[in-house]
Structure formats: C-alpha cells, structure tokens
Amino acid sequence: MASMSNWHVRLKAARIQKKADAGSMAWSIPANPRPQTAPSPESISTTTTVSKPPPTKRNTDGGRRPLEDSANDRGLRVATDSAPGVPASAPISRYAGLVSAKKRKAPASSVIHLGLLTPSESNFAPESEAFANRSSTRPYAPPKKLPRANRLAYDDVQSLTTRTTSQPSDWYAKINMKEKFSRADLANLQHVNTLIVQCEREAARRGDAEVIFAKIRQRLHQMQFFDFLSGVVVKKSKVLDELVGLPRIYLNAAGVEYPWDIRADAEALQLRWLQGVLDPHLLRGIDSSRKVRAEGKSAIAHRLEKDYPARKSCNVVGHNNLLNGQWWPMQICALRDGAHGEVEGGIHGQPGKGAFSIILSSGGYADRDDGERILYCGTSGSKDKPTAGTNHLTESYGLQQPVRVLRSAALPQSNRYRPAKGLRYDGLYEIVGSELLDGPTAMYRFSLRRQPDQDPIRYQGVEARPTDEECAAYTKIRKLIGLAT
C-alpha cells in the first residue's frame, strides 16, 4: 500500500509538472503604464515579461510549497529588454503563492523597475504656468488649499437660482398616496392632460388647433371650482407635472404656441395648487358675519382669518406671483392673496418704501383711465400737508419703482376697462410724472404708464376676466349671504 501511495504521488506531481511546462504563459505589460513625462525611446524598455508562478503542491502540514524544480530558476522573475542598468531578471518572491495576493507583499529588495523617468531626466514641457510653478513637495498635483481660517472673506454674497419652474411645497411632497380617492374624480382632473396631448398632435400636423384651444380655455375656467380635489387626486393626476400637466401650457412645450390668456390661467392655477390651496371657494380664509342694529338695520362684515395659512404679504414690489388678469370678488380677497394691502383704501404702501399697489375706482377724484396710461390722484390732505398715500406715490416716483394696478367694478360703466364684477389685476405701471392740482389740500395727480412686455388688459373677448364661471360663483355667494345680485 505504501508503494501504491508513493506511485500515486509521483504520478500527480508528473502531471502537474507537465501542465506547468506546456501551459507556462508570458504576457506583456507596458513598461510605463502611466507616463508622467515624455521619455525618449532609448530611456525605457518596450515590454516587461512576467513568467507564470511555479505550480505548487500540498505539504503534509497543510501549507503549500513550490515543486522541487530549481527554485531560483522557476521563481517569478521580471525581465526587461533594453532598460539600461536593469538586470535581465529579478526575483520577486521565492514563495509566491504561500499567501493570498491581497496579503502578499514584495520584499524591499525586489522592487520592479518599470523605467519611469524623473522630472529632471525628462524633456517634458509644462502645459500651464501653474504646472511650471509647481511645488517641489507636490510636483504632479495642485497645491494644497489654504486652511479655511486663512481664506479671504467675500464682501458681497448673492443668492442665485437656476430653476425655471415652480418648486413644489412641502405639502405636495408629503401627500399620503395610500389615501382613498374616487377614480371618476381622477379621470375628471386628468382630462386636461388629454386635451394638451391632442393640442400637441394637432400642432405637429399643422392643423387648426383653435377648437382644442377653446376646450382647454373652458376647462381651465372650470378647474378653478373643482370641489373634489385632494392631495392624492392632484398628485396622481400629474396635472402639476412638468412633463404632462399644466406647465406644458405656459412653457409652450412641444412647440405649441398657446394663446396668452390660456398660458396665464394655467400658470395661476399651477401656482395656487402648488401652495396647497385646493379650496375653490372664492371667500376661502374669510369669515363673514351679519351685524344687526337695534333699529333693524343690518350689515355684512368680512374679516380675514388670523390662522389662514395661505395668506401672502402685500408689501412686495412687483407682480408678487400674481398673473395678469387675476380676479377677486372683493377687496379683502385681494388682501388675502397679496395683491393689495388695504381693505378699503385705494393706495397701499409703506413709509420709505413707496407704494406697492393702487386701485382704480369711483371716488370723485379727477382720475383718467386710458388703459395703457392713467392719471391717478392721491388723497386729499389738509393744511398743505400731503397724506400718507400721496407720499407713498411720491416716493415710488422718486425710486422709479412700479406699482400694481387693480381695476374695480365700481368704475363708471363708461370705462371700457372696467371689470363686470369685483377687482382685476391689470399688471405693473410706472409713475412717469406728477402735478399739483390743489395747494391747500396738497392734492397731487400722478401720471402712470403701463410697463411693456406684459399681456394685454383682459377686458374684452374670450380673454376677459371675470369669466362666466367666476361671475356665477360670486352670484351664488351673494344670494347665500342675502345681498342683491
């Protein structure tokens, strides 16, 4: 049995040796895999040949050792062809394979020389002045950054934004998508997405899209008063999505040139819903009450809820995220949405900041309304002292800052720009002049001109505001609180 065992070992060793002789491989690697310089052909070898490690066999103690076949000759060697000063072969390790490749470390005396040139030996030409002036401690890397404490401070820091669309508010991101909803409501809201696709297809065929435009316009007017909206319905419908929803209208996606009034209505609806204002009621956030006197006379009072979360500040110069043609049934609603900061007054502003907005209404003043140009009077003062409202307009004239202009249904019916009901936002006007009409009352009249590059005033045609849906909703409210329609 012992002889059989020895014969088996010798046969196995012979097979391993035969495979090692027949299958020994040599491969070539670049002598300089990542050259740091531009070496000359004479200074570096072309290839480096690495012999395959010798086959090994199991020791009786469980380790592995090389086969007894000229260990020095069969050790792993590196041979260079023409590198000067480099020996023809240099053993890396006599016992390659004793440990794993991750743990094996070559002895310090067996370092492979790949023929890399030092900066002093190369004819390298720096590509930049910064590289030419590099530090001696970091010749091939940029200099270290200065410690934060030693960096120079900036005198002026301005916040920049790169967004071209509105960013959804927190409520939109936190909507519970597992909430129950009606599939009929979802389909009703998604219908506008279908109309958008139809319009884009018609435009691609260069067909007549006016019929679809009319459908989209009417749909947007109806969507303002959808009373079934919830967060999960709005999000599942993707009506606020930039790829399929309302943004495709006011961004003129797919090359479709939508009418300007449709773009404005779509953007206004997008901004309102993104803020989480899904309540379609015209008097949302407003408490209404009836006050009755002892003699039987009554009056209706309205006040803004203190904890209404969607209230916006009116103390902002410019549009304040309002769209041309936006409409409100009462002045307190314009206060709620940041259009005009006074419940009754026609001029809103702050000392030192000028006027933010004005309302054109009938009040017995010597005003004149020509649409693009307006002559607007301040309020009557006393003892040659202008009122606060007049001073606000004077400051805006000096600061050359525009004011928001709202027109009221209380204007004379002869005024062609008068809205049918409520108040309408008609864009930004700049004050271009003023004149003193009466010294004792300090009555000044200001000349205003509508700023260019704005949509037309929405007082006529299919673009007119208020819409039929808005007038019907306001009439219904007035009936409920007992007011004349």
Largest pleated sheet: 8 strands, mixed
The N- to C-terminal Cα distance equals 119 Å
What fraction strand? 15-25%
Helix content: 25-40%
Poorly predicted sequence stretches spanning 5 or more consecutive residues: 25-52, 56-90, 108-131, 137-141, 157-166
Question: For the residues shown, what is the average pLDDT?
Answer: 78
SSE order, one letter for each helix or strand:
HEEEEHEEHHHHHHHEEEHEEEEHEEEH
Q: What Rg, in angstroms, do the CA atoms define?
A: 42 Å
Number-wise, the strands total 16
Q: What is the overall number of helices?
A: 12
Structural class: alpha+beta
Note the overall shape: elongated
Structure overview:
By secondary structure, the chain is of the alpha+beta class. Helix content is 26%, strand content 18%. Strands 9, 10, 11, 12, 13, 14, 15 and 16 form an 8-stranded mixed beta sheet that branches. A 4-stranded antiparallel beta sheet has the order 1-2-5-6, with no helix packed on it. The protein has a two-stranded antiparallel sheet with strand order 3-4. It is elongated.
